[in-house]
Amino acid sequence: MKTINIKSRLRPIRFAFLVRPTDKKNIEKIFRINTCLWGGLYNPIIPVFGRTPTWWSNDSLKRELPSEALNRYLDFFEPDILVECEKGLARNSGYDSRRVINLEELLVGEGHESWNGFGLDTYDLYNELYDNEYKYQLRTPHNITIVEGKSAVQNMLVSCLFGKFPEQKEYSYYERVFKDNFDAHTIKLEDENLDKIYREGITSPIRMANKYIKRYSNNHMSPTLFVFDLTKPYDLIDYWNLRAVYANRVIPIPKQWISQLSAYCKEFILKNYRPLPGNRYGVMIRPQAMFSRGIEDEEANTIFENHIKVDREGANCIQHWYPRFDVKAYKGISRDQRPLLTVEERDAEYSFDDNDSTVKLDTLKPSFVNNHRGNCKWANVIKLRSWIDRSINTVFPIDFRNPKFPRSYMGGDFALPTSEGLTLLPRAISNTEYVEIKTCSDAISTWLKSKDITTVQSDAGRSTQQIIDTLGGFWGVRALTSKKVIEELNKIAMKPASKTDNVMAFRNKIIAATKNKRWKNRSFDQLVNNGAVELGAEIKCTECGHPSWFELPKLDHSLKCDLCMRLFDFPKVDTKNHLIWAYRLIGPFALPNYAKGGYSASLSIRFFSEVIGEASFSNMSWSAGRELTYSDGKKIEADYLLWLQQTSPLDNHSQARLVFGEAKSFAKEAIGIKDISAMKELAQRHPGAVLVFSLLKTNLSKSEKARLAKLALWGREIDRKTREQKAIVIVLTGIELFSVDDFSLEDAWKNATSKHKSIVEIYRYELKDIDVLADATQQIYLGLPSYGDWWHKKFIKNKT
């Protein structure tokens, strides 16, 4: 039996509402519907337009295309379900049509049965909250308040800021139950009492609809005043999305009421301009005033000077641009991202075997649900981890729109590979889900097949696979992290006859060749005990004098010569001249030319798993070399393939990166034109892929540098369609593959060249990030400028 760890997390369904930014009627309807949806506060509203309006963006040289804006928002929020306010708005989203609905499919009219409704409304939530909390009289009464506007414009503002119930008669029971259960009182919104509401605080319907949801922030925005034009619906959309991401750190300030709110704004700035807790270097939290797209810069400056600016040096900060909500815009150890929502979590071990690799797990569901039926009521996000067996697949390439891998189970349940994990949208009437556990190699092959790409393992791939399996995984591959060890093994493999070496000679050579002191005996033990070599005897025939190899089980009193085929007696007296106890390389280790590149590929996969792996919260699936055949008949071979998902305490929503590797040994001209062409074509067929060139040697030739530099510069360009780099090029040499002591890339580079040392000083805490590693190795080995300097120079050139 094998085991897999599955961590499950319950959260509400994430809807994304697609609407035209000038459609006031439907925008207000969205606000009101989300007032009655559990988790509605965190549902993004995505503006869709046929032609990019002038107000949309002023911080870019090129105006963003409508499709680019749509896809940028979708990539950032990764919604489970799209809601169209008018038919056809989701046309360019790429979503499975079963996950595109209209506004009428969300709430349930009074007296109707919710069979096909999506998501959970607040009816059962209100009753649960009343029974468990709000029916008791407290010393300090709950300040549960319904805010009403005095005009249509104010009602739209109230719907956005505080929540407002739908106007349709069939949905009137939501407001009725809310008032009855919570004894809510009503106030009229006026310019003079918005200040009071902000200072004293209220529990509004939109807040009440999000009870039991724990929100974990994954962003770093300073406390912000968002100044907007309440007459412009797209400004309200922008505030709604800001709050969904940054929560209470964003305070909405209508510009029409700025005079009445001026004192509050200044107090907000002074209160939040304070030292960053725990920082020893005097770093201050700097609150800011962000102005909406609906306010021109000149007007914003006037408002700031007259109503917000405070008389304290360093406290004033104004921002004229709106956050991009772009997961592909920033490369580094941290970036803004949507919050992590959690209602309940479970961490458990599940057993499975090779004959039945399907794991059955109980789904989590909200405590307040009562006999719900239908699909897509809530979401379970699961993460797979295999702590021992690294051959089990635990990573899935991100495809939340219309995934073909992994396949769904039980007649239509959705399984969406997202940056959070594998998101399941279970049927409300079912308490179970089924997850198929695959090996890494099978998972990668199945995924490629879903894209009409057939694969077979290459000869070099089989060698790599056997090396890793023989040595017991990546921990055992560490026995090869010495140039001299590999050279000694290759010398034996290159012998024209028997691939053997004297027992003591082999042991002494391996121990002497092992650089790491703590591994001097371990490398030898690992090779011997795991079956890289086998013990036997090399015995000369007493009839013809030819030495023959005999494995231990085949030794007997009478032996048969391999050459003359005659029997001869085991030497019992003259053992010194006729018998040598020896180790013989077997399997892939007996292959010439450094196990046909298997050593380089094995060390490369180990590098990504162990060196920049677990210590940096990485999760990786891998496959040894495969030949890929595309639908147009083109065949391309990669020496190894990886799915690498890197996360950190500051970055929980990361893409699983597709990595193609080209592995070479010590040849003077190892990287040729054909290698470059093949890897470039892989990047063109898989935009944004990571291309890794692994070499056992430590120095590249002039022509190799030129070829790789040209490819790296091409890869730095941004693909307009995918909005990311065309390719990420990484160069690994023997310095990275051999000299890594105690899994520290930083230590390896500190002990290398002056160039390595200078790079360590710049990127000390970021070297294990894929993008930083690519940037650093391009500077060291290819002589290229840093990505930042290169991009700045390109930006200035385009601007002029």
Plain-language structure description:
By secondary structure, the protein is an alpha/beta fold. 33% of the residues lie in helices and 22% in strands. The chain has a 6-stranded mixed β-sheet, sandwiched between helices. Helix 3 runs parallel beside helix 5, helix 12 crosses helix 19 (598-611) and helix 20 packs parallel to helix 21 (702-716).
How many strand elements?
A: 35
Order of adjacent strands in the largest pleated sheet: 22-29-30-31-32-35
Q: How far is the first residue's CA from the last residue's CA?
A: 65 Å
Tally of separate helices: 26
Q: Give the C-alpha Rg.
A: 32 Å
Structural class: alpha/beta
Q: Overall mean pLDDT score?
A: 88
Shape: elongated
Largest sheet: 6 strands, mixed
Helical percent range?
Answer: 25-40%
Unreliable runs, pLDDT <50, ≥5 residues? none
Strand content: 15-25%
Task: Map the helices and strands.
Elements: E1 2-12, E2 15-19, H1 24-35, E3 45-47, H2 66-77, E4 81-84, E5 100-102, H3 123-134, E6 145-148, H4 152-161, H5 172-182, E7 185-188, H6 194-200, H7 205-208, E8 214-216, E9 224-228, H8 233-246, E10 250-254, H9 258-272, E11 274-275, E12 284-285, E13 288-291, H10 297-308, E14 318-319, E15 340-342, E16 344-352, E17 358-362, E18 378-385, E19 414-417, E20 422-425, E21 432-436, H11 440-450, E22 454-457, H12 459-470, H13 474-477, H14 483-493, E23 500-502, H15 503-513, H16 520-529, E24 533-540, E25 547-551, E26 558-560, E27 567-569, H17 575-578, E28 579-585, H18 592-596, H19 598-611, E29 618-629, E30 635-646, E31 656-664, H20 673-685, E32 690-695, H21 702-716, E33 718-719, E34 724-725, E35 728-732, H22 734-737, H23 745-750, H24 754-762, H25 770-782, H26 787-799
Helix pairs in contact: 3-5, 12-19, 14-15, 15-16, 20-21
